[in-house]
What we know:
Shape: globular
Number of helices: 8
CATH architecture: 3-Layer(aba) Sandwich
Largest sheet: 7 strands, mixed
Bound molecules: S-adenosylmethionine
Amino acid sequence: xxxxxxxxxxxxxxxxxxxxxxxxxxxxxxxxxxxxxxxxxxxxxxxxxxxxxxxxxxxxxxxxxxxxxxxxxxxxxxxxxxxxxxxxxxxxxxxxxxxxxxxxxxxxxxxxxxxxxxxxxxxxxxxxxxxxxxxxxxxxxxxxxxxxxxxxxxxxxxxxxxxxxxxxxxxxxxxxxxxxxxxxxxxxxxxxxxxxxxxxxxxxxxxxxxxxxxxxxxxxxx
Length: 222
Ligand SMILES: C[S@@+](CC[C@H](N)C(=O)[O-])C[C@H]1O[C@@H](n2cnc3c(N)ncnc32)[C@H](O)[C@@H]1O
């Protein structure tokens, strides 16, 4: 069985993503790489929201260092409400070609709920970075979570935004289906499995403290 890659000690070279357009910090890129590298191949790796392929690249390189599961990259490529009138598909394809990960990626140009309704395979890693409004984040969770295997991981980007924040608080920290909840920069991730409510509450307090400190640091550095 493949050994888990230790936190912060893996061969992910950020040079490949530094010039890519997107919103992931280096630390968040590490989290994605590590989560994908730790997949065992028991289920698919699903990306909801690819934009121009930055997170797709982190997941692909991580998975390649691990079990080699393909990344199913779902995005209509017409942007979210905050992006205006865009079409990111050509640049996405160019980037996955340039980053030499074409063999790792199965792009699906569609909305996550359309794909999710037809999906019938197990999922081991579910990365949610599509539309960030509350109802869409909740919809992604409700449609895709049943496919996530026990021991599989769910991860949300922009988890301090109001939509993801509320879904994560209600369904992960206060819910019954997730444990080992972690928070790194804007990513919240958790393992599917029977929750220990007290531990999850503790994790929520730690999250609040970490986020509070980060906001103070940001204010000071202005
Ligand atoms: C914040 S961007 C994703 C950024 C990307 N993960 C990265 O690392 O660069 C959000 C993306 O979600 C896509 N999107 C919006 N609604 C969606 C939906 N219902 N299903 C899938 N993707 C969606 C948009 O087209 C946009 O490309």
